[in-house]
Amino acid sequence: MGAAPRYPSVDALRGITVAAMLLVNNPGDWGHVYAPLLHAQWHGCTPTDLIFPLFLFVAGVSLALALGPRIERGDPPPLLARSVLTRAARIFGLGLLLHLCAWWAFDLAHYRIMGVLQRIGLCFALAGLCAVYLPARAQWGLLLALLLGYGLLLAAGGSYAPYANLASRFDTQLLGLHVYQLEPGSGRGHDPEGLLSTLGALATTLLGLRAGQWLRAGNSRALWIAALACMAVGYAASYLQPFNKNLWTPSYVLWTGGIACAVLAAGHWAVDRRGWPALGRAFGVNAIAAYAGSAFLLYALAAAGWLEPLYRHAYADWMTPRYGPYLPSLAYALAFVALWWAVVRLLDARRIHIKI
């Protein structure tokens, strides 16, 4: 999409979220994971539930930083839109490929269409088009319409319960067996990265897009005000519709978006202005490559039958009798992140930045 001024704080924030994704997605034993590293079972918001919205928020910030200068110098909108859609299609396609590998490696009963990269691709495409074709006021209007409209849709669905909510019913009708979960016996399905709940995820990305423009303008005060306002309104809204990552409820958008604004403002002050180390930057400049590469490694180990023996012999057998079952699971996850930290550090040292 062309060169643009880089903010080390944004690269660091993106990298920290990717490292956190690897940490929570790769425990040695899913039956023994420390509570903060688990998603809320349904309603609620744990530290792990902050990771994906933070990544989408940073994707919106990155769009503002990449597209803003090109729009201001008069690059043709169709050219900008084509670059956005091309990259979004590659991200979406990579997600489909990853799920194909998972379906084969784990001998899954059905192929899942939607997923993390697919959601990132959709939000990147739609937010990018908004950046190209809509002025700031229209972007704010769309963000408000998404929050109110999606909230009303969920309320009109009559239930926020698993499988019975409108988002799950919509995804089951549209995707059939190709969702993440199927309820035994009923045939009802659910996908935490489904299509209808992507409306909420798009709102998160648009909030990041606007925050990115504040960052470009050096308006840290607006970031802090937005952080406090979003968190306050989101907390109040949670009494009407609870925080729920699976449904990506409007209260969840605002609560996590407020936290993201605060983290961005703090990171900008510490890294860009005060010169603190940009921890996580190596992950940030190879974010999608690290995420996809780690997934391919996991599927390869599973297909070869090495995943369970590796964990058992290297961690569980000698750690569990002394420390209990939770510490070896965490140690495995930390070692997995450390391995990929070494990979991305090596790539960055050689100035290899893989763009999808």
Automatic annotation (TrEMBL):
This is DUF1624 domain-containing protein. It comes from Lysobacter silvisoli. InterPro entries: HGSNAT_cat (IPR012429). It holds the Pfam family HGSNAT_cat. The keyword Transmembrane helix applies. The lineage of its organism: Bacteria, Pseudomonadati, Pseudomonadota, Gammaproteobacteria, Lysobacterales. Residues 6-153 form the Heparan-alpha-glucosaminide N-acetyltransferase catalytic domain. The chain crosses the membrane at residues 50-67, 88-106, 112-134, 141-161, 194-211, 223-240, 252-271, 283-306, 326-347. It comes from the Bacteria. Keywords: Membrane, Transmembrane, Transmembrane helix.
